[in-house]
Amino acid sequence: MDIKKYINELGKQAYAASRKMAAASSDTKNAALHAIAKEIIKNKDHLIKINGRDLQTAKKSGLEPALLDRLELTAARIDAMADGLKQVAGLEDLIGKTTEYVEQTSGIKIGRMRVPLGVIGIIYESRPNVTADAAGLCLKSGNATILRGGSEAIHSNQAIASCIRTGLKSTGLPENAVQLIETTEREAVGELLRMSDYVDVIVPRGGKGLIERVSAEARMPVIKHLDGICHVYIDDEADIEKAISIAYNAKTQRYGTCNTMECLLIARSQAKTVLEAWDKTLETMD
């Protein structure tokens, strides 16, 4: 495969689709999101089966347990994917809204209007549900997107992307508004990062190495994070029982996700009471 030619073609198609997405009505975008959610639920068993192939390969390659957990698609996680798309559909559509609207003494009226960015490249690792999450947010905001998931989730991502494209087609939106890079070659990432003619912004979601590479190589603006800094703070007026429950959930609901609590801060005046309650909570939990 000629990687450069392949990625360039994705860029051209995404750019053309972005023009149509920018003009799409809120009702059409929301209908597409609901159609995609319906398609995902319809194909739940198929998604779980395909995901099983990725899991089997990942286990054989020695992928660590935390990453295996991120990779797995269960019935509940697929339901959550679909629900997430419906929630995005329910959000207010800010495209076309104006802010900072002022009238000059000359009579000229000036304001800032929210408009789509165009084509958003999103690079992520491990979790196939990000395919649906990222596509949903891009579609709601009137953008086209090119997605590059982790190689360990390639079959899962392809299956989800197929559901997305079917949903788009059923509502009259361009299928190429959401495209998945369907090669695991690392060269594809480099070509995407150099494709400033068609990609307006890159969003990397993953480990430090990925973020550093994207920051160094991208020829377009990058929206990024870096190291995880997930803190929970219990202040001196907090309801201790509720605070302990929140902190425990923040750490133990899923250990492997990027928003898992990493640091618990407690107001000095509450420290003794909270830590004693925390110890008791841990003693009663599995």
Automatic annotation (TrEMBL):
One of its GO terms (biological process) is L-proline biosynthetic process. Residues 7-284 form the Aldehyde dehydrogenase domain. Pathway: Amino-acid biosynthesis; L-proline biosynthesis; L-glutamate 5-semialdehyde from L-glutamate: step 2/2. CDD domains: ALDH_F18-19_ProA-GPR. Transmembrane segments: none annotated. It catalyses: L-glutamate 5-semialdehyde + phosphate + NADP(+) = L-glutamyl 5-phosphate + NADPH + H(+). Its EC number is 1.2.1.41. Keywords: Amino-acid biosynthesis, NADP, Oxidoreductase, Proline biosynthesis. InterPro entries: Ald_DH/histidinol_DH, Ald_DH_C, Ald_DH_N, Aldehyde_DH_dom, GPR_dom. Gene3D superfamilies: Aldehyde Dehydrogenase, Chain A, domain 1, Aldehyde Dehydrogenase, Chain A, domain 2. One of its GO terms (molecular function) is glutamate-5-semialdehyde dehydrogenase activity. SUPFAM superfamilies: ALDH-like. Pfam families: Aldedh. This is glutamate-5-semialdehyde dehydrogenase. It comes from marine metagenome.
